[in-house]
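hi! just following up on the protien thing from before. the input was this:
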Amino acid sequence: MVREHQLAAAVPAEGRKQGIPALFLDGEEPVKGLPGLLTTLHDNGFDDRECIAWLFLDADLPGRPIDALRENRGSEVKRRAQALGF
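and the predicted 3d structure came back as:
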């Protein structure tokens, strides 16, 4: 799923193994809208680590983008990700 950009993974700290943030999963499946969003971010030149950082740290939205996706409010998150390419 990481290779197909359905999920993103990164090494959280030196000496640790690569991991996927738990908030990226809804049960055993990726959160709705996450695979498409990751594809958009990768198309804009982001690597997995940058995608994860953007989802957890972007301050342009009220709240974090990952929270908006989990609450089924992904439209604005997707629009902002698309605008990063311009």
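The mean pLDDT is 88.
The chain has one domain: 22-83.
cheers
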